[in-house]
């Protein structure tokens, strides 16, 4: 199944190391992805040769830095098919993007008695900002239930989406279940009821092509560090007409138009949301990451990861006593896979895999309400990216078998 993507591993120095004396099997890209040399070089070139502050002074270096920063904004707009670069706000992360929408737009449109609709599978980043907004405004936070296979219960969604709903906020891909949610359809249903659609794209944008106009998302948030870019750079896409109405939430330099002693006016979006010196190197790294992903091809990445997921789902379903949370059909399952092995604690399984050089994550995955919903306190999560190979997947399967044998022998 080498369609050329496997060779990309050579672009990552990171994979050349041993972990606990074993070849590294990195299965934690949903937490953060690795960076290829081209991204590291773009960031380091910026700091070596072009480092200057943006949007401030008319000198050669500052205009060079500003040009690169704004070119990164254009690149991001192209990557998610936004109509206008000015609808791209640079933030620190998905978390900051979603907080910005909840604080600025949420405070603007939500009033007492309104409802905010989210799902039982949301990451805390797409839950707590809405919980806080509901508390501030005496609004109600309503949860859409899930089907037994971890897909969103669309009947429940249609029942709960009413004229009282002001905002619908849903992950395009669950960071635990790997479920791919039908955002386009949900956005259509939301708009029919006069509600706004906010999408948490943290686990989606790195893995398949996203078209925010086709989805008709009002807001779309994602993080650079999950798609090969440095940590500390994130994106909030918003429809320009909405961004224009929204008040800033942070105040200071760079975001103003005119300042008097007692009052001030704001720059136009997106700059009014980017107070202070932004993460210029991060934005440049994100542009290089997008170049890298686009050279591979997002459709190719999606198809390759689906093939890997089919193999891992099949392999894991043959391990006795292993429970998979989320859809069993690879076509409906993005590159995140959560499971538990019999009654073993997720942390013990992750530790046993770690000793074999297999790096997975264990815990509640910042989704405690989902853990309660599933009736568990923790799960193991393996997550994949285009640089993972068939060998990585085979090692996970055999590593789990070995872990199972080890603990059953120990129990004797
Ligand atoms: N939403 C989802 C679905 C995620 O997986 C994550 C990261 N685990 C986040 C939001 C938050 O991303 P960040 O920590 O980069 O803000």
Automatic annotation (TrEMBL):
Catalytic activity: (sulfur carrier)-H + L-cysteine = (sulfur carrier)-SH + L-alanine
PANTHER family to which the protein is assigned, alphabetical: CYSTEINE DESULFURASE, CYSTEINE DESULFURASE 1, CHLOROPLASTIC
Annotated ranges, domain Aminotransferase class V: 26-396
Class of enzymatic activity (EC top level): transferase
Entry-linked Gene3D superfamilies: Aspartate Aminotransferase, domain 1 (3.90.1150.10), Type I PLP-dependent aspartate aminotransferase-like (Major domain) (3.40.640.10)
Superkingdom of origin organism: Bacteria
A UniProt-annotated Pfam family: Aminotran_5
Keyword Nucleotidyltransferase among UniProt keywords: no
CDD domains: SufS_like
Name of the featured protein: cysteine desulfurase
Entry's EC annotation: 2.8.1.7
Transmembrane segments: none
Cofactor(s), names only, from the UniProt record: pyridoxal 5'-phosphate
InterPro entries: Aminotrans_V_dom, Cys_dSase_SufS, Cysteine_dSase, PyrdxlP-dep_Trfase, PyrdxlP-dep_Trfase_major, PyrdxlP-dep_Trfase_small
Family indicated by similarity: Belongs to the class-V pyridoxal-phosphate-dependent aminotransferase family. Csd subfamily.
Key word Cell membrane present: no
GO molecular function, one term: pyridoxal phosphate binding
Keyword tags: Pyridoxal phosphate, Transferase
Gene Ontology annotations of biological process type: cysteine metabolic process
């Amino acid at each position: 199944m080498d369609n050329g993507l496997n060779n990309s591993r050579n672009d990552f120095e990171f994979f050349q190391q041993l972990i606990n004396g074993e070849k590294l099997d990195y299965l934690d890209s949903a937490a953060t992805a690795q960076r290829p040399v081209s991204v590291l070089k773009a960031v380091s070139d910026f700091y070596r040769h072009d480092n200057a502050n943006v949007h401030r002074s008319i000198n050669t270096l500052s205009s060079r830095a500003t040009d690169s920063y704004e070119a990164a904004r254009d690149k991001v707009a192209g990557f998610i098919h936004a109509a206008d670069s000015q609808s791209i706000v640079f933030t620190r992360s998905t978390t900051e993007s979603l907080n910005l929408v909840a604080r600025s737009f949420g405070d603007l449109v939500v009033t007492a008695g309104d409802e905010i609709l989210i799902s039982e599978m949301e990451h805390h980043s797409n839950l707590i900002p809405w919980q806080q907004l509901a508390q501030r405004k005496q609004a109600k936070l309503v949860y859409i239930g899930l089907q037994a296979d971890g897909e969103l219960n669309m009947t429940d969604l249609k029942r709960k989406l009413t004229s009282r709903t002001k905002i619908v906020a849903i992950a395009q891909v669950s960071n635990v279940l790997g479920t791919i949610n039908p955002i386009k359809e949900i956005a259509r249903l939301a708009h029919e009821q006069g509600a706004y659609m906010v999408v948490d794209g943290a686990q989606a944008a790195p893995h398949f092509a996203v078209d925010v106009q086709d989805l008709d998302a009002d807001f779309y948030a994602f993080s650079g560090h999950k798609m090969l870019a440095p940590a500390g750079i994130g994106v909030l896409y918003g429809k320009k007409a909405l961004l224009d109405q929204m008040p800033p939430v942070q105040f200071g330099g760079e975001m103003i138009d005119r300042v008097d002693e007692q009052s001030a006016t704001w720059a136009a979006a997106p700059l009014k949301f980017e107070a202070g010196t932004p993460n210029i190197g991060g934005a440049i790294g994100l542009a290089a990451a997008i170049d890298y992903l686009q050279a591979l091809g997002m459709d190719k990445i999606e198809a390759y990861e689906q093939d890997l997921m089919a193999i891992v789902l099949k392999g894991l379903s043959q391990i006795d006593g292993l429970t998979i949370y989320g859809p069993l059909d690879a076509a409906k399952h993005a590159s995140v896979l959560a499971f538990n092995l019999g009654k073993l604690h997720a942390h013990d399984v992750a530790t046993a895999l770690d000793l074999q050089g297999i790096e997975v994550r264990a815990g509640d995955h910042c989704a405690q309400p989902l853990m309660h919903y599933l009736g568990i306190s923790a799960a193991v999560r393996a997550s994949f990216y285009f640089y993972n190979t068939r060998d990585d997947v085979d090692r996970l399967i055999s590593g789990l078998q070995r872990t199972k044998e080890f603990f059953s022998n120990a129990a004797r």
